[in-house]
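Archive maintenance. Older records in this collection stored only the sequence; we are now back-filling the structure field for every entry so that each record is complete. The fields below show one back-filled record exactly as it appears after the update. Entries are processed alphabetically, and THOC3 protein is next in the queue.

ARCHIVE ENTRY
Title: THOC3 protein
Organism field: Oxylabes madagascariensis
Length field: 221
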Amino acid sequence: VWSRSGTSCLFVPSGENINICWSPDGQTIAVGNKDDVVTFIDAKTHRSKAEEQFKFEVNEISWNNDNNMFFLTNGNGCINILRQVPLKPIQSINAHPSNCICIKFDPMGKYFATGSADALVSLWDVDELVCVRCFSRLDWPVRTLSFSHDGKMLASASEDHFIDIAEVETGEKLWEVQCESPTFTVAWHPKRPLLAFACDDKDGKYDSSREAGTVKLFGLP
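Back-filled structure field:
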């Protein structure tokens, strides 16, 4: 259904939606809710193509770059891999000893990374599905990840008051971006080494409850 503002409203199962992603070919939207139901919506017809109820906590969801497998992270510390719609389980990987929160694929299609409540970021080989490296400079649960456009840098953030930027191939720290509050989301520019991020900033010296809602940039010349 199209609204007067020109936005399209898609009907999905009841429940508060908490994550969403596009398939790489732009044909399908996947949306997950707090009831751990993931619905796949046809982008042309705006109708549901499939719906899956999971028996575990579903966190972030993502297709791989080849658009033939669907990945999700769960509350048991696992990465679940499924075939494209209709869904068919392929593999479940024990990635972390605690809640596996976020997942991101690098633009080059070589790696994907996951972040967990154990404060670790793990780097995985896409073809072999093995962990090749861990990043352990954060102290709080990893909430957000982002690869740079060339796949050479990985930004990760949490309730720590800094963002860690690592060199993917070595794991070495390239930068530590200082923040005044927890960081909820980070995103690299699609063509340049420019990082956008949003923190839990407060607006006003005397009103600590008022949220600022600012977006910041790191990497400007």
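Update note: The CA atoms of residues 35 and 181 lie 30 Å apart. The chain is about 0% helix and 50% strand.
Entry marked complete.
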